[in-house]
Design a protein that fits this description.
The protein is of the alpha+beta class and 162 residues long. The protein is built from five helices and ten strands; from the N terminus they run αβββαβαβββααβββ. It has helices at 9-13, 47-51, 65-72, 118-123, 127-131, and strands spanning 18-26, 35-37, 39-42, 57-61, 85-88, 98-102, 105-112, 137-143, 145-148, 152-158.
């Protein structure tokens, strides 16, 4: 995990952006289909969180969806990208070095959520390339709770390391 470039902390500390949860998708079964829900009770002890601390929750930028669709010349359901949270109104990449609140939950941004080879199968030729650098953010659970569609996403603390 790379460190944040020194000297830029002041710009992130003063960022007033507040995002919004647009959609929530969960996978009750590993590698299973994504199921859309309106609320998600997140428990830091769940299997996915316990075994993959840095990837307990995955988020994707809603504003990137139309760009990805235009690059592959096809529409798709954004939840098919297998991310848990579709977020609008805040730059997810800027949350990588932060703890942030989503509803009652507190998450810690960890690593970029790079596309996997399954995106080629899902989106077709060029799907992986279209998502490159726009796959979103992975996060660890700091505090369990409930996330609901419409909840705010806001930075709590900038940490300068992931």
């Amino acid at each position: 995990m790379s460190e944040f470039p020194k000297g830029l902390k002041q710009f992130f500390d003063s960022d007033p952006a507040i995002g919004r949860i647009e959609r929530i998708g969960t996978r009750p079964v590993k590698r299973g289909d994504v199921v859309e829900v309106q609320t998600w009770d997140l428990d830091g002890g769940q299997d996915h969180a316990r075994h993959r601390e840095t990837r307990a929750v995955t988020l994707i930028q809603a504003e990137h969806i139309p760009i990805i669709q235009s690059l592959i010349h096809t529409d798709f359901d954004p939840l098919s990208l297998r991310r848990n949270l579709i977020v609008s109104g805040i730059n997810l990449a800027s949350l990588r070095w932060s703890t942030f609140a989503v509803g009652e939950v507190v998450l810690r941004g960890t690593v970029p959520c790079d596309p996997c080879s399954r995106m080629h199968d899902l989106l077709g030729p060029g799907g992986y390339a279209a998502m490159f650098e726009m796959g979103g953010l992975c996060a660890a659970i700091v505090q369990s709770g409930t996330i609901c569609v419409g909840d705010a996403v806001r930075r709590l603390h900038f940490t300068e390391s992931s």
